[in-house]
């Protein structure tokens, strides 16, 4: 080997030791003691320098008798492409499983570490593998119930270990019992009451699980129509005196949004919506958060539109404080219950925003 070749290999060894990502695709390394060739950034244990050969092309490594590494898969596209394919395969495995496979089982099948799979999956989907599996199982459960299958069949088909677990999860996911869901929500009873605040009319509706809707608007009639459209098959009944106390608590939250109010909530939404809403609930009074920041916190930095849609779908005004969401420059970008109400709520909380910058 010439001195120039030695120097080139020394430079390659340095890049390999540093796991330089730009080295992938530029050359390949073969380990003579194992007969395996890898990408320079392969996460396997670093071999001894004297046992390493470098190749300009992977075909050269294979012609020399080396076989591709099963971990870094040097014969399987670029790292970015491989990561996309890895997550796609993980999704297929999750969707094909009757239950929710563990991350360790998925990682073992895919030949990667649990931590690596978890990071890649969340970066690509915004969900953990477990949360994705739970959402897919919930979708199968809803489809099965909608087709009219017996509940015992649905329990078996969706991989729940017990009827108790099934009923607990479905009640949280559906906001009603499986039987009520099969009837299109018929049989569910929501108590409601109409009130008045300094920001206009308010309608509060609750299930046995907690407050399911807090609607703000100009007139009660429109809000009641909105409530009926949101819970089209539910039976709506007026609340009694005890319920009025809960409504008064909600009105107090609107009048003084900076005051801590512990309300039992019946939060209904997709897995992604609930992730966005949990971020909102963590934003303290007097503070604001941008759509971009929410997208980053839920692991979907490019899903700004989806975040905005989740905020707009929030049925629990003020309790889930979507009024605290602003544009990255501090300006307002719409509000389901009206921009004037958004301004008023933020003013009451003492939040500082660039209110002159408004985008309807």
TrEMBL record:
InterPro entries: Ada-like_dom_sf, Ada_DNA_repair_Zn-bd, Bifunct_regulatory_prot_Ada, Homeodomain-like_sf, HTH_AraC, MethylDNA_cys_MeTrfase_AS, MethylDNA_cys_MeTrfase_DNA-bd, MethylDNA_cys_MeTrfase_DNAb. Zn(2+) binds at residues 38, 42, 69, 72. Binds 1 zinc ion per subunit. GO terms for biological process: DNA repair; methylation. It is an enzyme of class 2 (transferase). Residues 88-184 form the HTH araC/xylS-type domain. Its cofactor is Zn(2+). Its EC number is 2.1.1.63. It catalyses: a 4-O-methyl-thymidine in DNA + L-cysteinyl-[protein] = a thymidine in DNA + S-methyl-L-cysteinyl-[protein]; a 6-O-methyl-2'-deoxyguanosine in DNA + L-cysteinyl-[protein] = S-methyl-L-cysteinyl-[protein] + a 2'-deoxyguanosine in DNA. Keywords: Activator, DNA damage, DNA repair, DNA-binding, Metal-binding, Methyltransferase, Transcription, Transcription regulation, Transferase, Zinc. The keyword DNA-binding applies. The active site is at 38 (nucleophile), 322 (nucleophile). One of its GO terms (molecular function) is methylated-DNA-[protein]-cysteine S-methyltransferase activity. The keyword NAD does not apply. Belongs to the MGMT family. This is methylated-DNA--[protein]-cysteine S-methyltransferase.
């Amino acid at each position: 080997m010439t001195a120039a070749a030695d120097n080139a290999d020394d430079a390659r060894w340095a890049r390999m030791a540093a796991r330089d990502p730009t080295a992938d695709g530029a050359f390949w390394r073969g380990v003579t003691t194992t007969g395996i060739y890898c990408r320079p950034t392969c996460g396997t244990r670093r071999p001894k320098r004297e046992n390493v050969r470098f190749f300009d092309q992977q075909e050269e490594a294979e012609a020399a008798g080396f076989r591709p590494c099963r971990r870094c898969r040097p014969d399987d596209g670029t790292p970015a492409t491989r990561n996309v394919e890895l997550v796609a395969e993980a999704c297929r495995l999750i969707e094909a499983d009757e239950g929710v496979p563990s991350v360790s089982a998925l990682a073992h099948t895919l030949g990667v570490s649990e931590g690596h799979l978890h990071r890649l999956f969340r970066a690509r989907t915004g969900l953990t593998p477990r949360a994705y599996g739970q959402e897919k199982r919930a979708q199968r459960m809803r489809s099965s119930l909608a087709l009219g299958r017996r509940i015992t069949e649905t329990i078996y088909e969706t991989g729940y270990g017990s009827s108790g677990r099934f009923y607990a999860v479905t009640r949280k996911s559906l906001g009603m019992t499986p039987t009520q869901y099969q009837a299109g929500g018929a049989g569910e009873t929501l108590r409601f009451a109409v009130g008045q605040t300094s920001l206009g009319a308010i309608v509060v509706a609750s299930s046995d699980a907690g407050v399911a809707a807090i609607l703000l608007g100009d007139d009660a009639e429109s809000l009641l129509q909105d409530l009926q459209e949101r819970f089209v098959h539910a039976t709506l009944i007026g609340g009694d005196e005890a319920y009025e106390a809960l409504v008064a608590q909600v009105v107090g939250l609107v009048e003084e949004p900076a005051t801590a109010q512990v309300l039992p909530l019946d939060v209904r939404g997709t897995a992604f919506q609930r992730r966005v809403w949990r971020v909102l609930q963590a934003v303290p009074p007097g503070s604001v958060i941008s759509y971009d920041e929410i997208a980053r916190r839920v692991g979907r930095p490019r899903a700004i539109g989806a975040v905005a849609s989740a905020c707009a779908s929030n049925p629990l005004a003020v309790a889930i404080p979507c009024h605290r969401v602003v544009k990255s420059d501090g300006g307002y970008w719409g509000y389901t219950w009206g921009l004037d109400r958004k301004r008023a709520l933020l003013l009451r909380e003492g939040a500082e925003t660039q209110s002159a910058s408004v985008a309807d």
